[in-house]
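Entry type: protein chain
Record version: 2
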Amino acid sequence: MAVNDPLHINEGGLPLNAIEWLETHHRSKMSEREQMIRDIHFKQGSYIVDAGCGPGLWTPLLARAIGYQGQILGVDISPEALVTAHKRAQGKWYESIVKYKRSLLEQLPVAPSSVDLIFSANVSQYLPDPVSTFAAMGRHLVPGGRLAIKDIDFGTMCFHSIDPALQASVYQARECWERLRVDDGYAFEDSWVGSKLAGYMRTAGFEEVHEQSYRIVRHATLSNDFRVYLQGIAEWFVCEGAPLLKPADRTRWLQLFEEGPSCVLDGNGFTYEETEYVVTGVWNKNHSTARHFDMHISILQEVLV
């Protein structure tokens, strides 16, 4: 999902949720993302919604999974991302089966009980109340329809050649800061959401919930895309001043990723790993959570004004 006012700017000035960043990140993990789509087992001819589609990076993968007889509706809150998605689809074989619309995830522009599958990648980390959002999306699924959520969990990240104590300090400071930063005027974010998705989906009223984890490992020599991804993520961990991290640790951390002979990414035996999660569930229309969506949705509508 792309946003209009990027929150995290790395040391090189790149917003980590800007379109350029999203494209680089997507390319750097293409083999794993192709496998994720295969493992969801889309049915040919399905009508699917890509909820939080951003600049349409997943569209080719989704289109290939459902074929010419299928339909894709991509929704996002960012006009810039949607324009990019439209342009990306022009002239492609799947152009005729995809449409894009601006919308909140809690108010998808489709009829109730009309969608075969709702797919959403790297969006749940920005949801203050993922249970309510998942349940709101569920009402648009046909009986037996599925929700498929893919997201990160930064608690699984490990640079094997970096001092474990320094890594722990950086990660813990960021995780604690994410719990507090809303009070300082930042938007909600939970970058440790991946391992929580299955629980959120069950609470939202989904059955047959299945969690699939994908271990992503890279060794030296890194591709340029993955190198840019890691440098951006490293800088993101200490963005916004890293108020809960010792200044000396912040400096040590950033120095490790600076271009030059001592850059950790170029070290002999460099290894990095992380785990991403894809969770699917079948909507139970008879399930009732103890939540009310109307006030939640009315507040979120302000985003589109």
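Comment: The chain has ten helices and eight strands.
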